């Protein structure tokens, strides 16, 4: 299954729209305007809540939790590494590995690839191509891609500060 995630360019908060292959909106992602740390809600295009993403602000390395209305599903933690992006997703036992420079990531469960995400370079605003192998992992894959974008932009914000 292929999805295309487009970040809204002129917005005071993080906003994304997730499109299917036919360019039909499937999900919306909206960040809270005033919050300590990143907080985003993923809904269907009709507005039905799906997942929430919350940043753990008092953490040495970036950490985000992904939850539905009932419980926390996983915590994504960035791990120290040089030249490569590496994350752990607990308690699922998945990992995210990829390139910091060309924005290409893969989520794996051991040797099985759960999803891949790649940034589209010649587009207005951030646009990503997400490929999900199993439909059961569709929403969690969208959330993981959003977390990757948040971590990348958090790093950019921190480097641009004096």
Relevant CATH superfamily: LURP1-related
What is CATH's topology name? Answer: Porin
Strand order of the largest sheet: 1-2-3-4-5-6-7-8-9-10-11-12
Whole-number mean pLDDT: 86
- CATH architectural label: Beta Barrel
Query: Could you give the distance between the termini?
Result: 42 Å
Integer count of domains: 1
CATH class: Mainly Beta
What percentage of amino acids are in beta strands? Answer: over 45%
Shape descriptor reads: globular
Nearest-angstrom radius of gyration? 15 Å
Which residues form runs of ≥5 with pLDDT under 50?
156-162
Tell me the total number of β-strands: 12
Number of helices: 1
Structural class: mainly beta
Major β-sheet annotation: 12 strands, antiparallel, barrel
The percentage helix is: 10-25%
String of helices and strands: EEEEEEEEEEEEH
